[in-house]
Amino acid sequence: MKVMLIAHTPEPEKIIATAAKLCYSSSDIGSLKDGLTEEKTAEFVNMLASIGHESVMEHVSFTFGIEGISRACSHQLVRHRIASYSQKSQRYVNEDGFDFITPPEIEAVPEAKAEFDRTMEVLVESYHKIAEMLTEKHTADFIAQGQDEKTAARNARKKANEDARFVLPNACETKIVVTMNVRSLFNFFEHRCCNRAQWEIKAVADEMLRLCREVAPNVFKNAGPSCVKEGKCPEGKMTCGKFAEVREKYKVL
Ligand SMILES: Cc1cc2nc3c(=O)[nH]c(=O)nc-3n(C[C@H](O)[C@H](O)[C@H](O)COP(=O)(O)OP(=O)(O)OC[C@H]3O[C@@H](n4cnc5c(N)ncnc54)[C@H](O)[C@@H]3O)c2cc1C
């Protein structure tokens, strides 16, 4: 798994402090940034966190590139609607010999790993065979419709991918670019850094939070699972019960 911070709003903490200053002072736009030293900016950001004024955090966005994750993981990621996504297409990109993610718990049990690998082998082969069969059929159809051979073959392969992908598993490797604003990231971290989240998306979320903290330490100082951010666990009976341990982990991440 690889998580890269591709870009972020420049001077993220200053932008947040600037937006907040507009709310709480009579400064005009031209002078809003005046006096916003590093110290003052940090003070503003900490004050905003303490009063829960999160709307000003929406002015700052972070864009990540993520690869080497499963489709099971990306499906969980894209459930977060307050974000923008671009994902490797299984229509336009040929998945012949596709890569797949093996969960560590399967890796650790030799019989399960053998069964898993055998299943992946079958699926790789099935995908290839179905794509070939459909390509042949679609090529003939396109030629009958008047396309030249080269164009027909290219279009047929794309059309074949659309249906052959139905045999691809949740384990199939994918790549995705995601942009979220800080407020949405807070919500994402609350849900996905939680011990109740699945291991793969939790690892993605932890790395995203680590990268965010490098760039905007004051903004993300208290970000993390709900028990860290809000001081209490919302999971009720399903709580992991490891509040102290989790708190320690997210202090230093
Ligand atoms: C441990 C865990 C288990 C899960 N299990 C399941 C499961 O079994 N089945 C399942 O379907 N999902 C499951 N989910 C996904 C979960 O229900 C959310 O869809 C996902 O976490 C996205 O959260 P969100 O809606 O807060 O994020 P976003 O979509 O980014 O929304 C952010 C916030 O904006 C507001 N918002 C967004 N859209 C609307 C809207 N249409 N109306 C009103 N307010 C809105 C809400 O306040 C929301 O919290 C699970 C998530 C976790 C962390």
How do the helices and strands line up, and which of them pair or pack?
Layout: E1 2-8, H1 12-24, H2 38-51, E2 61-70, H3 71-77, E3 84-87, H4 104-107, H5 110-144, H6 149-164, E4 173-181, H7 182-192, H8 199-215, H9 217-220, H10 226-229, H11 243-252
Helix pairs in contact: 1-2, 5-6, 7-8
The structure holds flavin-adenine dinucleotide (FAD).
Explain what this protein looks like in three dimensions.
- Pathway: Pyrimidine metabolism; dTTP biosynthesis.
- This is Flavin-dependent thymidylate synthase.
- Pfam families: Thy1.
- Keywords: FAD, Flavoprotein, Methyltransferase, NADP, Nucleotide biosynthesis, Transferase.
- GO terms for molecular function: flavin adenine dinucleotide binding; NADPH binding; thymidylate synthase (FAD) activity; thymidylate synthase activity.
- There is one protein chain.
- The protein is α+β, with helices and mostly antiparallel strands and about 250 residues long.
- The protein folds into two domains: about 1-85 and about 175-250, Gyrase A, domain 2, CATH 3.30.1360; about 105-165, no CATH class.
- Helices cover about 55% and strands about 10% of the residues.
- It has eleven helices and four strands, in the order βααβαβαααβααααα.
- The chain has a four-stranded antiparallel beta sheet with strand order 1-2-4-3.
- Helix 5 (about 110-145) packs antiparallel against helix 6 (about 150-165) and helix 7 (about 180-190) runs antiparallel to helix 8.
- The two termini are about 20 Å apart.
- The mean pLDDT is about 95.
- The site of flavin-adenine dinucleotide has 10 residues, from helix 7.
- Flavin-adenine dinucleotide binds near residues 191 and 197.
